[in-house]
Amino acid sequence: MPQRKGSAVWRGGLKDGSGTVQMASGNFRGQYSAESRFGSGAGTNPEELIGAAHAACFSMALAGSLEKAGHPPESIETSATVSIEKVRDGFAITTIDLDTQGNVPDIDEKEFLKQAEIAKKTCPVSQVLKGAKISLKARLVSPVTGSP
Amino acid sequence: MRARVTEDCIACGRCVEICPEVFEMGEDKAFAKVDPVPAEFEEAAQEAADECPTSAIIIEH
Q: What dotted CATH number matches A46-141?
């Protein structure tokens, strides 16, 4: 069973500190701070990293689901908007809004939406994020065709 | 309504994003630049207080 690793170092307190987050694969390393998390300061934050992970997982799951149903996609593009809110005991990631569009030949919209809902429910990252309300907006786009 | 920012502020800038008419970023923390809060900005100032991650904004009525 594969095990994946991410790591972070935070230096200083919440107010004056800052951190570095990175993937063990070496494909991403970024800075973060209170300003980049709660305001709009430069840097990354855990929520957008979760969003990237969820978008990646969902897209992959939808591709698999479509393929299994006999409709292999040309491409799936997904964004995941993750909201963190103050709650009574601190903070909570309350909602994740998935927005996806699929370029899938020979499929009707109803079937595409059905497969997208399946992927939303079954993708492993959705499973682990059950504490948040996950919404889905899905659109089918026409496959790109070559020049006449 | 009056608004003040305590030492718990972590200078994330969220309040300034929500209600720039009332809050401004200082050197190491935000502060309310108007006192009292004009009536038309009371709702936004309250929202900024509600969303402040460290509950550093005190609203007094």
A: 3.30.300.20
